[in-house]
């Protein structure tokens, strides 16, 4: 079987700057705030399709009787409150290409500063760990602080050669404290191109 690809040394060499960047915070400890505050209506929309019927998510009196300040958001919903707006009045359109599968020209979930990441053609998330420090209460605004690269492990897989990148960040409240600590990993890669005749 013929495989058209870079040599092992070539593709590994282009990842050297990223390997050397382990320990760097590419967000420079900046906080990116979510567009919406935590409110009863958005909690209701989250718990309704999942049928989460715990009263701490919809009954303030019950939540307070159990020691919470007020209604709290489900832990699995907290990260969604850290996402900035996709679009705002006065900004240019997000979609400028009518082609099938076209992507937005910008997105708050795309990282503007990727560091010395070499040009690649694909990526996918591999895992996410969140350690919660405390519950999130209605009325708070959430943000994400930092994007520290803590691992860059080179790997050749069946989908291509690239690197497993792990980042560390914090979910913070406008109250001034840390709500959760998060580690997220992605595999960033170039596909391995194989001859069709060899399949």
What's this entry about, in short?
By secondary structure, the protein is an alpha+beta fold. It is 14% helix and 33% strand.
Give the biggest beta sheet: 5 strands, antiparallel
As a percent range, the share of helical residues equals 10-25%
Q: Going across the major beta sheet, what is the strand order?
A: 2-4-5-6-3
| Strand count | 7
Quaternary structure classification: single chain
Cα-based radius of gyration, to the nearest Å: 21 Å
- What structural class do helix, strand and pairing data support? alpha+beta
Total helix count?
Answer: 4
Q: Beta fraction of the residues? A: 25-35%
How would you describe what is shown here?
Mean pLDDT is 88; it is low at 1-5 and 195-199. The radius of gyration is 21 Å and the shape is globular. The chain has 199 residues and is an alpha+beta fold. The chain has helices at 8-13, 16-20, 40-50, 60-65, and strands at 3-4, 31-37, 122-132, 141-156, 160-173, 178-191, 193-194. The strands form 2 sheets. Strands 2-4-5-6-3 form a 5-stranded antiparallel β-sheet, with no helix packed on it. Strands 1-7 form a two-stranded antiparallel sheet. The protein is built from 4 helices and 7 strands; from the N terminus they run E-H-H-E-H-H-E-E-E-E-E. The longest helix is centred in the first third of the chain and has 11 residues, at 40-50. 14% of the residues lie in helices and 33% in strands.
């Amino acid at each position: 079987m013929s495989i058209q690809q870079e040599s092992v040394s070539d593709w590994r060499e282009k990842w050297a700057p990223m390997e050397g960047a382990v320990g760097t915070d590419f967000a420079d400890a900046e906080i990116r705030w979510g567009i919406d505050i935590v409110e009863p209506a958005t909690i209701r929309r989250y718990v309704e399709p999942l049928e989460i019927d715990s009263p701490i998510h919809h009954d303030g009196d019950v939540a307070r009787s159990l020691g919470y300040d007020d209604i709290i958001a489900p832990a699995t919903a907290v990260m969604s409150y850290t996402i900035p707006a996709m679009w705002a009045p006065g900004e240019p359109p997000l979609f400028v290409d009518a082609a099938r599968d076209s992507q937005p020209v910008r997105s708050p979930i795309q990282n503007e500063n990727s560091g010395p990441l070499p040009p690649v053609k694909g990526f996918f998330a591999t895992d996410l760990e969140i350690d919660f420090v405390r519950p999130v209460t209605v009325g708070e605004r959430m943000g994400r602080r930092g994007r520290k690269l803590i691992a860059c492990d080179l790997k050749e897989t069946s989908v291509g050669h690239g690197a497993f990148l792990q980042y560390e960040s914090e979910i913070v409240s406008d109250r001034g404290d840390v709500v959760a600590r998060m580690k997220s990993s992605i595999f960033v890669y170039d596909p391995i191109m194989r001859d069709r005749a060899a399949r």
